[in-house]
């Protein structure tokens, strides 16, 4: 039997709970996870580099990305770097600047093409030597003074080859070979007696083809990119025929095709261009035959 009085008030206990959503329903975890994935990617990239490179290459990478490198790690001024196409990650201790005539004590860099030497300071530098990889059969660049002498020798050889060819002997005055600051220039121009291209056409004459075929082997022996430029005289073109722009560009392209078929590799060509009558050889005589020409330039490097 209840002992309390019927009129006594009962105590009612009410329990209230605050419902909190689980933390994973927010977006903060995504940022943390992205940081974790980025860190893991960087970690595995470092592990791969450690496995795929040599100790010397790893020192080179560390030196390249070290913003606090001391002054002695900075390579000396490059006055006459040997022109070779080496891997950016040199496998020797330090790249050394070699001046003309200083070849004693140097050796090849494990077949990669760079000529280096061990210096007393064993710091490693990454020195890019060229802006493109070496191509099969490419002649190694030489110091600028030696290059000028080589160009002069090639110039004499081309002139001698043209003079010795009975079919081209009469055209030797139409071939002009000069040395400029940008390289070796070979100009093949028309004369009043002999044209290198048919009037209003881009196809070279047989004499022009023979000249280009004779010149091609000498260009192949030289290092440096080859450019071909075509020029016309100032004679106005008639409606329905090729313009001077089309003639000059087409003749330069035709000369390039003949050189390629004669053995000059296609990758050697840097630029094929046509200048119409915008750069006359004889401005005082805009209709002169010598204004109609093709100029080959073997660039200095």
UniProtKB/TrEMBL annotation:
User: Where are the bilayer-spanning segments?
Assistant: 31-50
Q: What is this protein called?
A: Chemotaxis protein MotB
Cross-referenced Gene3D superfamilies:
OmpA-like domain (3.30.1330.60)
Protein localization: Cell membrane
* Entries under InterPro entries matching the protein: Bact_OuterMem_StrucFunc (IPR050330), MotB-like_N_dom (IPR025713), OmpA-like (IPR006665), OmpA-like_sf (IPR036737)
The superkingdom listed in its UniProt entry is Bacteria
Annotated source species: Neokomagataea thailandica NBRC 106555
Its membrane topology? Single-pass membrane protein
> Belongs to which family?
Belongs to the MotB family.
Q: Keywords for this entry?
A: Cell membrane, Membrane, Transmembrane, Transmembrane helix
Question: What PROSITE patterns does the annotation carry?
Answer: OMPA_2
Q: Which residues form the OmpA-like domain?
A: 184-301
Query: What is the predominant subcellular site recorded for this chain?
Result: membrane
């Amino acid at each position: 039997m209840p002992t309390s009085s019927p009129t006594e008030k009962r105590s009612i206990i009410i329990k209230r709970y605050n419902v909190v959503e689980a933390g994973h329903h927010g977006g903060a975890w995504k940022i943390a996870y992205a940081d974790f994935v980025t860190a893991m990617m960087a970690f595995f990239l470092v592990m791969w580099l450690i496995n795929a490179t040599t100790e010397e290459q790893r020192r080179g990478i560390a030196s390249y990305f070290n913003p606090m490198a001391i002054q002695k790690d900075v390579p000396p001024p490059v006055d006459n770097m040997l022109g070779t196409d080496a891997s950016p990650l040199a496998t020797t201790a330090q790249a050394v600047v070699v001046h003309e005539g200083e070849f004693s004590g140097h050796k090849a860099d494990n077949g990669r093409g760079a000529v280096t030497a061990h210096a007393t300071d064993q710091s490693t530098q990454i020195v890019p030597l060229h802006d493109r990889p070496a191509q099969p059969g490419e002649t190694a660049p030489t110091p600028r003074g030696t290059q000028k002498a080589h160009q002069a020798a090639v110039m004499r050889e081309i002139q001698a080859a043209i003079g010795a060819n009975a079919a081209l002997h009469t055209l030797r005055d139409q071939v002009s070979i000069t040395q400029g600051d940008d390289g070796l220039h070979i100009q093949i121009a028309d004369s009043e007696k002999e044209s290198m291209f048919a009037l209003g056409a881009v196809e070279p004459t047989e004499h022009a083809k023979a000249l280009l075929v004779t010149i091609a082997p000498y260009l192949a022996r030289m290092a440096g990119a080859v450019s071909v430029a075509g020029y016309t005289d100032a004679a106005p073109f008639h409606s329905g025929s090729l313009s001077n722009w089309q003639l000059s560009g087409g003749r330069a392209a035709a000369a390039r095709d003949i050189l390629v078929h004669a053995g000059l590799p296609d990758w050697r060509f840097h630029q094929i261009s046509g200048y119409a009558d915008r750069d006359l050889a004889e401005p005082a005589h805009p209709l002169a035959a010598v204004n109609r020409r093709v100029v080959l330039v073997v660039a200095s490097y």
